[in-house]
Amino acid sequence: MEEIFDECWNSKGIQVFVKRDDLIHPIISGNKWRKLKNYIQTFSLKKHSGILSFGGAYSNHLFALAFVGHSLGIPTVGIVRGEELNVTSNPYLQQMNKWGMTLHFMARSLYRNKEIQSEYENYQCIPEGGYGSQAIDGMDTLFNELPACDAIYCAMGTGATAIGIARATTVPVTGILTLNNQAEIEDHLTDFPAANLKLDDNYIFGKYAKSNADLDLFCKDFGEKHRIPIEPIYTGRMFYAMCDHIKNGHIAPDSKLVAIHTGGIK
After folding, report:
1. What is the CATH number assigned to the segment(s) 2-25+133-261?
2. pTM of this structure
3. What CATH class has 49-122?
4. Each residue of 27-50: pLDDT tens digit?
5. What single Pfam family name could you report for this chain, choosing any that match (predicted)?
């Protein structure tokens, strides 16, 4: 847990702490391990041939799963969105392939249905991004490591991290959406209710992973000022939103905030 200082919030008596989950591990950092750990702990090679999951060409989740499989001797399969791709398309796919993950590149029209080929039927399936009840339950340990606070900020992809944290506490949690999937998140909240979770879709910057000069500059300045590396896909959007909320008076003076640094390789 690391406190960061800025005149923007110090002048209002607001304290900001960063939960440095990016320091858990150089590869499976942040929420990647927390979402995976329950799946891994309950996995058995006596029941399944390996573990299969889904993701895009730069999936942090698949990257982490490939490393875990390599480290623990568990066969892994990554169903990757985009039939035009191959194992040499980018450095992340190359590394996943080196770690022994079988990469299956699927047409986007088929990927939407998350179809599993017959040769992988005996593989334990982890949903895209690691989302699922075991991932949500895996956030209990994260909340137990947080100090008492007035509000928690967290970036949202599939929503497992923010939902899991919100279900473990009554503290208000603000989930900053990083892609246009609010309807999907609301469906998840039907299955896993969390009344204290507030969704904010004002910081997507157009669409997922879209480059934005203002956001890129913010991430650069934030990293230089606070000596905490962030990236523009997830954590950058979350910290940008939190700072904007403070500037615009959405946070009460003398509040204590905790921002979850969920790691990432980008």
Report:
1. 3.40.50.1100
2. 0.92
3. alpha beta
4. 888 899 999 999 999 999 999 999
5. PALP
